[in-house]
Design brief:
Distance between the termini: 27 Å
CATH architecture: 3-Layer(aba) Sandwich
Order of helices and strands: EEEHHEHEHEHHHHEHEHH
Number of domains: 1
Largest sheet: 8 strands, mixed
Number of strands: 8
CATH topology: Rossmann fold
Strand content: 15-25%
Length: 283
């Protein structure tokens, strides 16, 4: 990871939206900007930490935590993916960024897609990793709409420490490496698990199938072939629907960005380079 002198970390007040935390690398003069959007239950640091050394050599990096995740905006309203996209656009305005490449992992994929749809003037390219344009069949999406209000109410009355303890038990079983497990547990400790649950339901309901073929910016897809959370067939469907998308396949599962960076980081770097080559003059 780059040294502290190569990064700035600070809180930003987003007018009308709340306060969030931003981490950014200094980058070379006039370097293209990558806006890194993390996945469900993660944080910007947890999701992207293994990529910082490789990417910061060529790009300026901007990393945020999404609604209810890590040190992201704490909102009183239920989680919505569109709010995460608008938060990212608001951060870009506060940082005087007029163009960047949106790089989304898992949940960050829909956020990147919505960011392009709602703020097309600033998104000049996309890299979509371990993600899709639809995560659940229509029947399951309908069920999610019906069940979400019940889950929201249960989440509000359930003790936070009970939810947190359950999440920690799951992590202990899911991640066997003690060092990685402790880092993951420490990083997600500040998240609001009620909001994370709402985010999981929002992902189940998400579909951009009706408009994803309108995407007109250079796009690369990092496809995780052994993914058990977002099947490779769903990822390929998304890649096929985006005109001109270039696919970079890796033999990894959904957690590959943390557990096997030797697979993920080279593919991500190649995907970013491919997008920038097609974007052309970024200045």
């Amino acid at each position: 990871m780059p040294t502290a002198s190569e990064w700035t970390e600070h809180k930003i007040e987003l007018p009308g939206r709340g306060r969030t935390f931003v981490r950014q690398s200094r980058g070379a003069a006039n370097a293209p900007t990558l806006f890194l959007l993390h996945g469900l239950g993660a944080t910007g640091l947890l999701n992207w930490r293994t990529t910082f050394n490789a990417l910061s050599e060529q790009y300026r990096l901007v990393v945020i935590d999404h609604h209810g995740h890590g040190r992201g905006v704490r909102a009183r309203t239920p989680f919505r993916l569109v709010d995460c996209a608008d938060d990212a656009a608001a951060v870009a305005r506060e940082l005087n960024l007029d163009r960047f490449v949106a790089v989304g992992y898992s949940m960050g994929g829909p956020i990147a897609q919505l960011l392009w749809q709602r703020h097309r003037d600033i998104v000049k390219g996309m890299v979509l990793c371990a993600t899709a344009c639809r995560f659940a069949p229509r029947g399951r999406r309908r069920l999610s709409y019906a069940v979400s209000p019940i889950l929201n109410n249960l989440g509000r009355i359930a003790p936070r420490n009970v939810i947190r303890s359950a999440a920690r038990r799951w992590l202990s079983e899911a991640i066997t490496d003690p060092g990685i497990r402790e880092f993951v547990m420490a990083e997600i400790g500040s998240s609001d698990f009620v909001t994370v649950g709402q985010a999981a339901a929002a992902i189940q309901r998400y579909s951009s199938l009706s408009w994803i073929d309108e995407i007109d910016v250079p796009t690369s897809v990092v496809l995780t072939e052994k993914d058990r959370l977002v099947p490779a067939t769903n990822q390929q469907l998304m890649a096929d629907r985006i005109r001109g998308a270039v696919t970079h396949c890796i033999p990894g599962d959904h957690s590959v960005c943390v557990t096997h960076p030797e697979l993920f980081v080279p593919a991500l770097a190649e995907a970013c380079e491919s997008v920038l080559e097609r974007v052309g003059n970024f200045s």
